[in-house]
Design a protein that fits this description.
Number of helices: 2
Radius of gyration: 15 Å
Largest sheet: 3 strands, antiparallel
Order of helices and strands: EEHHE
Number of domains: 1
Length: 93
């Protein structure tokens, strides 16, 4: 039996947020998770919007936002930051 794991990973973590029996459900969950990461990243960028000394942070968050706008889970790559994924796994019964 196949299941689909939805989560995100980065260089120092791997977080599974949900498991699904059907690909379509996983795809919806993946998109919701991607949008949540996008929102969190935008909020982080907004904290540094008017601070000249933090240009590298502003650049990093801007790049992350552009990468998280990708709507294809097979193409998205946010390395080295949180990259949302769908992974197909086989359950042993």
């Amino acid at each position: 039996m196949k299941i689909y794991l939805v989560g995100d990973d980065g260089p120092e973590h791997n977080q599974v947020v949900s498991a699904h029996q059907h690909y379509y459900g996983a795809l919806q969950a993946w998109n919701n998770h991607r949008l949540l990461l996008l929102k969190e990243t935008q909020e982080s960028l907004d904290q540094y919007e008017n601070k000249d000394l933090l240009d590298p942070l502003r650049k990093m968050y801007t790049e992350m936002i552009e990468k998280l706008k990708e709507e294809d889970h097979k193409v998205i790559d946010c390395f080295p930051h949180d990259t949302p994924y769908i992974r197909e796994m086989e359950l042993l019964e």
